[in-house]
Design the sequence.
């Protein structure tokens, strides 16, 4: 359920992911029905989104959510499971992003397709989703994941 | 190869990396038009998808949705028969041409990557070289506007391949244009959020006098640090809504929600979004450049150049138009779409080209070597310098 984004938004650019998976872009788009549809979608704001993360062994789960921000609603319709075993043993920042990569056919213009980006700290700064070829906009911080200790830290 | 039909012989094989589901860009819309148009003309077409980005679920959806569809690798094409193979992609390895021996190969260049590089200020060197090799190696090149053909000549590409036709794109629009569009005070932008399309203009205009009660809807992909920087202004953040990459019902909702579509591009080989707006009766304001002028003729409000000042002046002119004049302009644009740019008219032009290439007449053979030229991946800088 996790995959890396495209390299650039110009025609002719070759696609490819991050080989070492130092960052992750996770979305339910294009995957069909996901396995975790039973749980209700949680309605949150940017201030209350932190409780969406949970850890199950080596899997980080981001609950399905409906997040209101900036006059729009960002929807992740099913839970996302991210295999932390594929990531470097480092600290990651977990952010909700507006997914610009997949075609959205929802006629309700106030609702937007959400995805999740795990950023690493490089020198003194956190990676920014917009700076990577993911075609997305940062919406809200969900928290941090220490992948060495396998723990979730609050924002 | 996975295919949903048993046949191995067709009138034409359409080779693409993008279908109308989860499109990458405008090519998916052109393919949608060709599917409708060729169906209307009863052409026996195989849609061959390769080098694609589709998930397993989406691939299954493609196979269930579109008859005569195959998903495979270049070598699979050697087992398929058709007098003509028609290429649409940006990503093909020129060695693909080796798998198309015995077929006339038509390459539609949906945009010249050298022009993309120049207008966006980016280095697309490898992709440009790949496109040039494909141009050199195919039998016939199709460009999507006369303006694009001028760029083709300027770049010295006639030395690569001088067998060139211009075929304008067409659109399969299932929406009936509404005669009355109540004002909503919303401006629209639709397209990739890249520098050459100037998506920032529909945000900047909101700060101008006369637009205080307007908002902007931006449909497109490629949100960047620059876009985020623009939205640091709290007022713009409140008045600009990014909708993401819109397709299907969302695209319809977008066109229904806006008063005018702004296309401030500095380079636009054709301008599918202009055609989408024309077909739906949405007024268009755009730069007087390239394919946009060919599509819209007099049925648009034009900015004289790609600068913001010209765009702002054009926006003021649009705002000052009375409702009747604006509606008349949109009606004229819709009529122009119906007359010249439908899916069927595009398909008809392609069929005429395919027929000419497949038949051993003077058009097909004139000046063409008996064996296809081998693709040469060398960048034709020398050619360009010579042409100057």
Sequence:
């Amino acid at each position: 359920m996790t995959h890396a984004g495209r390299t650039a938004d110009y025609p002719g650019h070759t696609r490819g992911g991050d080989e070492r998976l130092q960052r992750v872009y996770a979305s339910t788009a294009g995957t069909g029905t996901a396995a975790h549809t039973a749980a209700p979608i949680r309605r949150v704001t940017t201030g209350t989104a932190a409780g969406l993360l949970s850890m199950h062994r080596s899997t980080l789960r981001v609950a399905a959510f409906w997040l209101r921000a900036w006059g729009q609603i960002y929807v992740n319709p099913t839970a996302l499971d991210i295999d932390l075993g594929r990531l470097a043993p480092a600290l990651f920042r977990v952010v909700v992003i507006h997914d610009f990569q997949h075609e959205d056919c929802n006629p309700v213009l106030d609702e937007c397709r959400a995805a999740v980006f795990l950023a690493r700290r490089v020198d003194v700064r956190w990676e920014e989703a917009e700076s990577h070829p993911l075609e997305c906009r940062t919406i809200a911080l969900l928290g941090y994941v220490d992948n060495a200790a396998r723990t979730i830290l609050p924002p | 190869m996975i295919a949903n039909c048993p046949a191995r012989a067709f009138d034409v094989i359409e080779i693409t990396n993008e279908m109308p589901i989860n499109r990458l860009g405008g090519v998916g819309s052109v393919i949608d038009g060709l599917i409708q148009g060729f169906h209307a003309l009863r052409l026996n077409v195989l849609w061959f998808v390769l080098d694609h980005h589709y998930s397993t679920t989406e691939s299954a959806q493609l196979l269930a949705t579109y008859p005569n569809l195959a998903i495979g690798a270049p070598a699979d094409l050697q087992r398929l028969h058709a007098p003509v193979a028609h290429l649409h992609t940006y990503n093909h390895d020129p060695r693909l041409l080796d798998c198309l021996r015995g077929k006339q190969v038509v390459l539609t260049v949906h945009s010249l990557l050298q022009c993309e590089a120049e207008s966006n200020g980016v280095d697309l060197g490898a992709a440009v070289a790949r496109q040039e090799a494909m141009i050199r190696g195919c039998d016939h090149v199709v460009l999507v506007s006369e303006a694009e053909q001028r760029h083709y000549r300027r770049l010295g590409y006639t030395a690569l391949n001088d067998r060139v036709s211009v075929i304008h794109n067409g659109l399969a629009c299932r929406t009936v244009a509404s005669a009355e569009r109540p004002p909503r005070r919303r401006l629209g932008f639709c397209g990739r959020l890249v520098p050459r399309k100037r998506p920032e203009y529909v945000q900047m205009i909101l700060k101008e006098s006369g637009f205080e009660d307007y908002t902007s809807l931006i449909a497109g992909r490629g949100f960047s640090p620059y876009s985020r920087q623009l939205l640091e202004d709290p007022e713009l953040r409140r008045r600009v809504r990014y909708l993401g990459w819109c397709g299907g019902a969302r695209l319809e909702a977008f066109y229904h929600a806006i008063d005018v579509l702004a296309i401030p591009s500095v380079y636009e080989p054709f301008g599918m979004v202009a055609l989408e707006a024309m077909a739906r009766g949405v007024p268009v304001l755009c730069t007087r450049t390239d394919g946009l002028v060919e599509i819209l003729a007099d049925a648009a409000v034009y900015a004289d150049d790609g600068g913001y000042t010209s765009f702002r002046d054009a926006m003021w002119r649009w705002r000052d138009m009375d409702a009747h004049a604006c509606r008349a302009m949109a009606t004229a644009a819709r009529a122009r779409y119906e007359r010249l740019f439908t899916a069927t008219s595009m398909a008809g032009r392609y069929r005429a080209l395919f027929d000419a290439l497949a038949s051993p007449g003077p058009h097909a053979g004139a000046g063409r070597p008996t064996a296809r030229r081998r693709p040469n991946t060398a960048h034709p800088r020398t050619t360009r310098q010579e042409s100057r």
Remarks:
- Residues 117 and 124 of chain B are 6 Å apart (CA to CA).
- The first helix of chain B runs from residue 26 to 40.
- The radius of gyration of chain B is 21 Å.
- Confidence is low (pLDDT under 50) at residues 363-371, 374-388 of chain B.
